Each structure stands twice: as C-alpha cells, then as structure tokens.
Amino acid sequence: MKDKATIFKALSDPNRLRILKMLQMKPLCVCEITEVLDLATSTVSEHLRVLKKEGFIYEKRDGKWVNYLINKHPADPRISAFLSTLDFWIGNDKVIEKDKKKVAVVDRVEVCSR
Question: What angle, 0 to 180 degrees and rounded to 10, lies between the N-to-C axes of helices 41-54 and 30-37?
C-alpha cells in the first residue's frame, strides 16, 4: 500500500502536474520549467526530484543541458496508465493552457543565461 501512496503523493501537487503536462510537449531544462512556473529553481528541482524518484520522468544530459523527459517506459505500469490519461484529468485546465503557450515560446538560451 505504501508504494501506491507515494505515487499519489507525487501527483498531489498542482505544480508537479503542470510539469508533467509541460514535459508531454517537449523535453525541458530546469531553467525553462522555472520560467513557466515562475517558481524558485530550488522548488522546481525538488518537484523534479519527486517525479523522477517515482518514475514519471527521467533526465538526460545533452551537452551542457540536463533535459527532463516523460518516462515512456516506466517500471511501474500504473505510471504509464496515469500518464496516458493525464489529458483526461487536466488537459483543458486554464492554467495548463497558459503553460502550453509559454512552453511553446520559452527560450532556454535566454532564460538560462540570466
């Protein structure tokens, strides 16, 4: 039961749900996610740590960038089941729609050099 509770705990924060929706659009670095969410880098890093620990996302180094991506093949099939229904749960939320617009134009070179 405890492993199920940790999955729900990972999903219990609206910002983590927003991150998952953003990463469904494209891989992003911490700076880009921070820019869209308008949160402190340390806060975003903690959200990413929780999502990564539960298997929702993974990180991949690309030169100087560390990109975060949706885990399309998690070990736990419940993760896949949830990710496949994420649009059903929050796809048409107004905040998610705003995030999609921001993700489409966020420029990592600009935001990471600040």
Answer: 110
- For the domain that residue 56 is a member of, what is the CATH number? 1.10.10.10
Q: How far is CA 73 from the centre of its chain?
A: 16
What are the structure tokens assigned to 103, written together? 């993700």
* Tens digit of each residue's pLDDT (9 = 90 or more) over 40-97: 999 999 999 999 999 999 999 988 889 999 999 999 999 999 999 998 988 889 999 9
- Residue found under tokens 């620990």: 53
Torsion of CA 103, 34, 107, 57, to 10 degrees: -60
Give the total number of structural domains in the chain.
1
> 60 CB contacts (<8 Å, ≥6 apart)?
27, 66, 67, 69
Q: Pick from 111, 114, 113: which is nearest to 28 by CA?
A: 111
Q: What domain range includes position 8?
A: 2-112
Classify strands 65-70 and 57-62 as parallel, antiparallel or unpaired: antiparallel
Q: pTM for this one? A: 0.93
